[in-house]
Amino acid sequence: MVRFKSRYLLCEVCVSNPSDLRLLDERAVFFAVKAAVSRAHGDYGTALIGMCFSVKYLNAHTGVVFLRCRKSHYRMLWSALPFISSLESRGQRVPCFFNCLHVGGTIRTCQKFLIRYNTQQLHRLLPRCRSDSELVGYVGFHRAKLHCCRFVVQ
Amino acid sequence: MAAFADLCISGTNDKKRLQSIIETAAHLGYSTVAINHLVEVQPKKQEIGKPKCVSELFDHFPIVQGRSRPIRVLNRLTLVVSDTSHFRQTADFKFYDIIAIYPKTEKVFHAACMSCDVDIICIAATEKQPFHFKRPPVFGAIERGVFFEISYAAAIKDSTMRRYTISNAISLMETCKGKNVIVSSGAEKPLELRGPYDIANLGLLFGLSEGDAKAAVSANCRAALLHGETRKTALGIIRTVKKSQPADEREDKEAPPSKKAKLDAM
């Protein structure tokens, strides 16, 4: 059976100021990516993106984004992502950059990767916390991340 | 998993900014970073100066994402040279781990490729290349183990710079066929860094093949670092290391096992 194959790009939006993450929303990411593709690949790029590109999921607490596009030109979209230097949201410009963590064929594989990645992050951050309250804070934060991942599949 | 390296981070006197850049690099997955010190070579003799000691930056270096080791920070010197006679090897070179040259004219480029003792030759990213790349010096550099570097920070900032970077990069690829190329950031702020897989993808825009693009961020960078290390060794085989152990302890040797017996006898 012939079906339309797509690629899900799992990206992390990195900002210098953690409180700016709360300003993110899906529309801002969508327009930023569209603008970057049109600047990098011109009308051809914009046309391909117009076919089947969407922001499937955005977590404002952690900055994780799922972008979906066709399998035939996900590389073109991926190559335009490094050129994004800021997001426009609610009238404010947030300087940021996109770090692509994983490319998967389905949301489920991306979710599996995200769970592994979050447990790695937890291992990295745990030695640095200095008190019990910080530890509880970190664990709660990452549990929230994992909870959000499971939400996506449903 | 390959070890990624970013061999050009602009060195500033602002310690906090440098710390945040290195932390971002560790978060993105770079195992090695090199702090760049840019020097314009003057006709008269000049002091290049020692780089700041790397261990002053951090008490504990941040751990690289996905690995258990801390990030490795090195010092690098870039000389902007417009005349062949200006390039002189001074004693200050030994404080830097990597030496790079940014040639401004064709003669300097030819000299850098064929004879100068450098590890990296920088390709212009902010202006149109004033000379064309010819095959003989490029292939001579490839045989010697010198690498060509493309820096992408300018491309991220401005649209005109992006055009220059891409056109210079593609004209280099046409001549060198994608060999001995490294891509590095030249970042001045932590937001100008990009992840290694993103940069490997950017390499496709620059005309590299998929394998070459990934090598440009990992294997070629490691080779450039080793090339820089050999400057501190004798013929690239023996390296002496000061040890705080008793005098009868032998020097640290990198000689192959077959030669070890002879050296021990000596």
UniProtKB/TrEMBL annotation, chain A:
Main location: nucleus
InterPro entries, sorted: Pop5/Rpp14/Rnp2-like, RNase_P/MRP_POP5, Rnp2-like_sf
SUPFAM superfamilies given in the database record: Rnp2-like (SSF160350)
Listed GO biological process terms: rRNA processing; tRNA 5'-leader removal
GO cellular component, as recorded: multimeric ribonuclease P complex; nucleolus
MF terms in GO: ribonuclease P RNA binding
Record's subcellular location: Nucleus, Nucleolus
Transmembrane segments: none
Keywords: Nucleus, rRNA processing, tRNA processing
Functional description taken from the UniProt entry: Component of ribonuclease P, a protein complex that generates mature tRNA molecules by cleaving their 5'-ends. Also a component of the MRP ribonuclease complex, which cleaves pre-rRNA sequences.
Known partners and oligomeric status: Component of nuclear RNase P and RNase MRP ribonucleoproteins. RNase P consists of a catalytic RNA moiety and 10 different protein chains; POP1, POP4, POP5, POP7, RPP14, RPP21, RPP25, RPP30, RPP38 and RPP40. Within the RNase P complex, POP1, POP7 and RPP25 form the 'finger' subcomplex, POP5, RPP14, RPP40 and homodimeric RPP30 form the 'palm' subcomplex, and RPP21, POP4 and RPP38 form the 'wrist' subcomplex. All subunits of the RNase P complex interact with the catalytic RNA. Several subunits of RNase P are also part of the RNase MRP complex.
Family assignment from sequence similarity: Belongs to the eukaryotic/archaeal RNase P protein component 2 family.
Protein name: Ribonuclease P/MRP protein subunit POP5
Native source species: Scleropages formosus (Asian bonytongue)
Automatic annotation (TrEMBL), chain B:
Gene Ontology CC: nucleolar ribonuclease P complex
Keyword line: Acetylation, Nucleus, Phosphoprotein, rRNA processing, tRNA processing
Presence of keyword tRNA processing: yes
Pfam families membership: RNase_P_p30
Cited InterPro entries: Pol/histidinol_Pase-like, RNase_P_p30
Major localization class: nucleus
Family: Belongs to the eukaryotic/archaeal RNase P protein component 3 family.
Protein known as: Ribonuclease P protein subunit p30
Species for this entry: Scleropages formosus
